[in-house]
Write a structure and sequence with these properties.
15 strands, globular, about 40% helix, 2 domains, Metallo-beta-lactamase, Chain A
Length: about 300
């Protein structure tokens, strides 16, 4: 566990699932009260609680745990956290709330999709229905001392995805709406597993671009500057993958041939290829699942320039 102060009122917690650094972040916001953005996985919940203690945050001071979506690496730990945070409410998209109250089907689907990675993240525990607040587009969470989070619905990566705009720092907690930031390389790579909806994801990116934020706070991983440029570049990267997939499908190429072409063409993958291939999680989620998600989208819906 590592705590990094990234703004006067924001601390990043490196949750290090299975000891993997710079992969999953939770953020602690300090105002009159405190809030957490992203619970992280179930198996790192105790690390996050220890981080609160080290920051001098009392359990009863936490008023919100806001998750971008309910995938295990982002929201899997919230049930455990709320058992220790007596006054905290969960902020989650309406379509995710039902699965935090009763996470069994989420756990079953996650094990099928992720295999051993699901075990690495841990089984989610339920959240009492009365502690769930549905996050809606434009909702403002007031933490006090001028620290506020504005909820922004940003679907595409998932049908239940939210991001959070922090008005004091003018930064966005991106969840998975803006890709994965490999901070050591200053490179963004897609997170687009099936069922991925490119048209909706690009519309969500336009919403984020219009906020004209100064910073991006990635769940994977860390603080980045040049916010608008990174969001624009990510949209172009997604469209590049889709164009390559569309050409491959037209030629009758299989998934592996399209995958090879994307890896050979995308400069971000070229720059970080060896790192990703050797990474215990990214080698599956980026090179396999994310590319397949784009290909399946194009197979199902086609790809046209109207997405630009």
């Amino acid at each position: 566990m590592q705590i990094t102060k990234i703004e006067e009122h924001i601390h990043l917690i490196d949750l290090k699932p299975n000891g993997i650094e710079n992969f999953v972040a939770s953020y602690v916001l300090l105002g009159e009260n405190a809030a957490i953005v992203e619970s992280g996985p179930a198996l790192t919940a105790q690390k996050l609680l220890l981080s609160l203690k080290k920051l001098g945050v009392k359990p009863e001071d936490v008023t919100y745990v806001a998750v971008s979506h309910i995938h295990l690496d982002h929201g899997g730990g919230v049930g455990i956290l709320l058992k220790h945070l007596p006054k905290a409410s969960l902020i989650v998209h309406q379509r995710g709330g039902i699965h935090t109250a009763n996470p069994q089907s989420l756990w079953t689907a996650s094990k099928k999709a992720l295999g051993r990675l699901a075990q690495m993240y841990g089984k989610p525990e339920p959240v009492a229905q009365e502690r769930i607040i549905v996050g809606t587009d434009g909702m403002v969470l007031d933490i006090g001392n001028n620290v506020k989070l504005r909820v922004v619905e940003t679907l595409g990566h998932a049908s239940h995805h939210l991001t959070y705009y922090e008005t004091l720092s003018q930064g966005i907690f991106t969840g998975d709406a803006a890709g994965i930031y490999l901070n050591k390389h200053n490179v963004v790579v897609p997170t687009s597993p099936a069922p991925f909806h490119l048209d909706i994801a690009l519309a969500s990116l336009r919403k984020l671009i219009n906020l004209k934020s100064k910073f991006l706070y990635y769940s994977h991983f860390g603080k980045a500057e040049n916010s608008v440029e990174k969001l624009q570049a990510y949209g172009e990267q997604l469209k590049l993958w889709a164009k390559i997939a569309a050409r491959g499908i037209e030629k009758g190429e299989n998934l592996e041939a399209i995958r090879k072409k994307i890896i050979e063409t995308d400069s971000a993958l070229q720059k970080t290829g060896e790192f990703i291939r050797s990474h215990p999680i990214l080698n599956k989620t980026v090179l396999l699942q994310s590319i397949e998600g784009i290909v399946r989208y194009v197979e199902k819906t086609g790809y046209s320039d109207h997405l630009a």
